[in-house]
Protein: Acetyltransferase (GNAT) domain-containing protein
Organism: Palleronia pelagia
Amino acid sequence: MLGEGHHDVPKGMLAAVVTHLVCHRPAPAQPAPAGVRLRRETRMPAATYRDLFRLIGRDWLWTSRLMLGDEDLLDVILDPKVELYLVESDNGPLGLVELDFREENNPQIAFFGLTPAAVGRGIGSWLMPEVQRRIFDRGAKTVRLNTCSLDSPKAIPFYMKHGFEAERREVNIFPDPRAIGVLDSEAAPMVPAL
């Protein structure tokens, strides 16, 4: 455990406070925005997943899936206990949801994100109750997710509005994806690269 006070983070590394959240019932359902749908994806190629993951998470420094090679990534996203959903319209993808049922009695929303063009259109307020319902309909007693201090400042209030409560925090120190070429140097301009 880190003690009180300031702690140096090595050059080329980032530190994020991760907040783990839990909910015990789905939020009230909302109507889907016109022309928006949620579709289960069972055979997404690694490159397609990475492109959408990067588009959604670039400015929040999402990196975990980008760091995996094709085989390791496909092992995760094609696992029968992992469900991928595309949020889409006739104009293409608007978001991605990854549900993880690999841990018995501990389902998680591993990733929940919208493309920059989809943010602010009410899609998330429809999507979260829909995702929660799909998990609780399988008999789950709780749903977990986590977010970090590098995410949008609207993330935690959004999750709490949809019934999530914070249950614990941890510090994650990891390589800056811009320093190692995983993301471009212009990503996340609000987080200075060192």
